[in-house]
């Protein structure tokens, strides 16, 4: 690109001035010549900037442009911005060193003089009254011919205008045209900058903006647009200095590698696995040690495991036996009893355990006793749970003798720790009994101590084999514990429910239930559903459920559950402590107990007065059990005021 130096510009000005002939300095011909000269210089002045494109692997070399008479910067030998020195003459009031620095060819006391720029008349070379041309630059709104006529350096449509970030002029502190500085947006790559804050990429290298996306290796990048302190980590195969330069966090020999580059490199024992940094290798991959393998076994330089469908390492059969793998099933090869699930290895084959083989195997808790298959153990034998023991009492891992204080109904007792032919105390009222002698009051009525007894209810034909029995006791004698201070608070909200895993498998209408849905509406269901707040009568084809007090409760989270006792005699208690919706603030207190084993159920009513006669005693509630088939269920009440405080309902499973 052709360049004009400032010296060339001076010669051009001199030549043009010489064309004025003998005209006087203040004649019209002289003024026109100066104006034409000024315009020609402005037209012919150009900025030629060449930026050498840097080689990717070498530092960036930027060829910054030299001073020109149109760069709007006081530089070179100029006495004013883009005027004086080797540039066209400056207007009146500008700094000057010699007369040639001034448009008027008059320099006095370091300032250009000679025109009357204060006479209130537009004359001479002025573009507006007393400004522009040879006079000081004009303010906004004044007429102009070139940017040098304006204080703002913006001459738009012949009028001086305010500087903007889109006027295509480098002004108002911009570091490059319309960008950088404090006024405009940041500059793009390769634009001139003074600091990193001038650049969109946040980097100013050697006076030029650079970034992590300029396709040039610059700044502290270790490869093109990656690595270093500012750019993203480099991909596999890129140059690196340290591990942090690499996306895979591994820099080996100055090149990024990773555990996903499909190349065996670094400390990998096989492609992209093993070694110090990659994940462990799968079966069949090369290994140097067991730590290279997902199965933690390296056999003859190959990863093996207990799931590779091969008999290898010290396995006695495919994927079983030996020191590492699980024990083998019956019929599999073995070398020792420890290779077999049954703990019996006969003729190098695992055989089934039995309760007379004099070996502790299967699910036994002690030799040939306890567990799921063998008879219960005698006193002194090892046990895991109470059901391992003939006495039903397992203490500190040993079966112990039954007693009248072990909290278990055993040794012929008619209720827990009372009654029967034992030396235990006689049972108090409302405990179960078989004869009057079982009771402290010497009265056994319908299977319960005392004179109250138990009154059957329900229809046997549709009960599904369950037997219902009702009795009324003092609230303090209810067989359902008050667990508000000891149980787990569910936090169940109004009109909602929560799923809870039960502490034991509970038999309900012939199906083993391991989870229950506790509804805020005074109900337990066994199919994961919430029956809602509108009750119905039983039997019905809705849900398998226990309706303790099926009503529109608002418990605000005050529903609790707790487990009592030890296997196989555990009891799971659930308690609702809630007002009935729209009845007031009086709390209704109802509870139920689910018993391990046969699946018996007790339901207790601590308080059923709601504060409104429209809801008292369960007048709008359902109480009973329902199979969910639509044909079997055992109902005590439905929308009748029969659920009095102190009422106990017992459901005996078939």
3D architecture notes:
- By secondary structure, the chain is mainly β.
- The chain is built from two helices and 30 strands.
- The chain has a domain at 488-652.
- A hairpin with a 6-residue loop joins strand 24 (559-564) and strand 25.
- Strands 17-18-30-27-26-25-24-19 form an eight-stranded antiparallel sheet, with no helix packed on it. It has a six-stranded antiparallel sheet with strand order 20-21-22-23-28-29, with no helix packed on it.
The residue fraction in helices comes out at under 10%
Separate helix tally: 2
Largest sheet, strands/sense/barrel: 8 strands, antiparallel
Stretches where pLDDT is under 50 for at least 5 consecutive residues are 1-62
Termini Cα gap: 106 Å
Beta fraction of the residues?
Answer: 15-25%
Task: Count the beta strands.
Answer: 30
Approximate shape:
elongated
Mean pLDDT: 86
Helix and strand content put the structural class at mainly beta
- The spatial strand order of the largest sheet comes to 17-18-30-27-26-25-24-19
Structural Rg: 50 Å
Keyphrases for this structure?
654 residues, 19% strand, six-stranded antiparallel sheet, mainly beta, 2 helices, disordered N terminus
Topology readout:
Elements (H helix, E strand, L loop, with lengths): L5 H13 L9 H17 L62 E2 L2 E2 L42 E2 L2 E2 L42 E3 L2 E3 L40 E2 L2 E2 L40 E3 L2 E3 L40 E2 L2 E2 L43 E2 L2 E2 L44 E2 L2 E2 L5 E3 L9 E6 L15 E2 L7 E12 L2 E9 L3 E3 L19 E6 L8 E6 L6 E8 L9 E8 L5 E7 L14 E5 L6 E6 L8 E6 L2
Antiparallel strand pairs: 1-2, 3-4, 5-6, 7-8, 9-10, 11-12, 13-14, 15-16, 17-18, 18-30, 19-24, 20-21, 21-22, 22-23, 23-28, 24-25, 25-26, 26-27, 27-30, 28-29
Helix pairs in contact: 1-2
């Amino acid at each position: 690109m052709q360049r004009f130096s400032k010296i060339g510009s001076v010669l051009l000005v001199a030549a043009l001035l010489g064309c004025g002939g003998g005209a006087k300095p203040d004649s019209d011909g002289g003024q026109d010549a100066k104006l034409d000269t000024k315009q020609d210089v402005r037209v012919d002045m150009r900025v030629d900037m060449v930026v050498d494109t840097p080689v990717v692997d070498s530092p960036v070399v930027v060829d910054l442009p030299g001073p020109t008479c149109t760069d709007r910067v006081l530089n070179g030998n100029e006495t004013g911005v883009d005027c004086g020195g080797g540039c066209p003459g400056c207007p009146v009031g500008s700094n000057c060193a010699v007369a040639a620095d001034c448009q008027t060819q008059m320099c006095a006391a370091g300032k250009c003089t000679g025109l009357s720029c204060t006479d209130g008349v537009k004359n001479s070379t002025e573009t507006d009254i007393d400004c522009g041309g040879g006079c000081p630059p004009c303010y906004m709104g004044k007429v102009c011919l070139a940017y040098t006529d304006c204080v703002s350096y913006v001459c738009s449509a012949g009028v001086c205008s305010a500087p903007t970030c889109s006027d295509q002029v480098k002004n108002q502190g911009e570091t490059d045209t319309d960008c950088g500085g404090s006024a405009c947006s940041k500059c793009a790559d390769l634009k001139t900058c003074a600091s990193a804050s001038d650049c969109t990429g946040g980097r100013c290298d050697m006076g030029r903006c650079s970034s992590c996306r300029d396709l040039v290796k610059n700044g502290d990048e270790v490869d093109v647009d990656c690595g270093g302190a500012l750019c993203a980590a480099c991909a596999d195969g890129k140059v690196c200095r340290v591990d942090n330069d690499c996306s895979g966090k591994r820099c080996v020999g100055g090149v990024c590698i990773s555990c996903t580059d499909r190349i065996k490199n670094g400390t990998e024992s096989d492609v992209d696995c093993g070694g110090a940094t990659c994940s462990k290798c799968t079966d069949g991959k090369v290994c140097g040690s067991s730590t290279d393998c997902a199965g933690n076994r390296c056999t003859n330089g190959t990863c093996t495991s207990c799931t590779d469908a091969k008999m290898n390492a010290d396995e006695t059969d495919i994927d079983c036996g030996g020191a590492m793998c699980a024990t083998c099933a019956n019929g599999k090869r073995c070398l020792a009893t420890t290779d077999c699930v049954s703990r019996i290895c006969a003729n190098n084959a695992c055989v089934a355990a039995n309760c007379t083989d004099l070996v502790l195997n299967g699910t036994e808790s002690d030799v040939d006793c306890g567990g799921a298959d063998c008879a219960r153990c005698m006193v002194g034998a090892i046990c895991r749970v109470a059901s391992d023991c003939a006495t039903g009492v397992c203490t500190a891992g040993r079966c112990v003798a039954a007693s009248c204080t072990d909290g278990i109904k055993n040794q012929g007792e008619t209720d827990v720790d009372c009654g029967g032919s034992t030396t235990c105390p006689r049972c108090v009222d409302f405990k179960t009994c078989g004869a009057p002698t079982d009771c402290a009051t010497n009265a056994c009525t319908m299977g319960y101590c005392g004179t109250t007894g138990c009154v059957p209810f329900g229809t046997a034909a549709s009960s599904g084999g369950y037997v219902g029995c009702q009795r009324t006791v003092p609230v303090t004698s209810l067989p359902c514990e008050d667990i508000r201070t000891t149980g787990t608070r569910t936090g169940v909200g109004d009109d909602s429910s929560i799923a809870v895993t039960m502490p034991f498998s509970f038999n309900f209408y012939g199906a083993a239930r391991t989870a229950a849905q506790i509804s805020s509406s005074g109900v337990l269901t066994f199919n994961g559903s919430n029956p809602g707040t509108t009750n119905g009568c039983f039997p019905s084809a809705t849900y398998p459920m226990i309706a303790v007090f099926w009503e529109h409760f608002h418990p605000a989270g005050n529903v609790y559950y707790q487990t009592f006792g030890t296997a196989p005699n555990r009891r799971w208690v659930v308690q609702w402590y809630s007002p009935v919706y729209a009845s007031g603030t009086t709390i209704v207190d109802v509870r139920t107990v689910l018993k391990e084993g046969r699946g018996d159920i007790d339901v207790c009513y601590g308080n059923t007065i709601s504060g409104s006669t429209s809801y008292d005693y369960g007048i709008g509630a359902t109480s009973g059990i329902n199979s969910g088939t639509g044909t079997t269920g055992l109902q005590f009440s439905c929308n009748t005021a029969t659920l009095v405080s102190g009422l106990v309902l017992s459901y005996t499973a078939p």
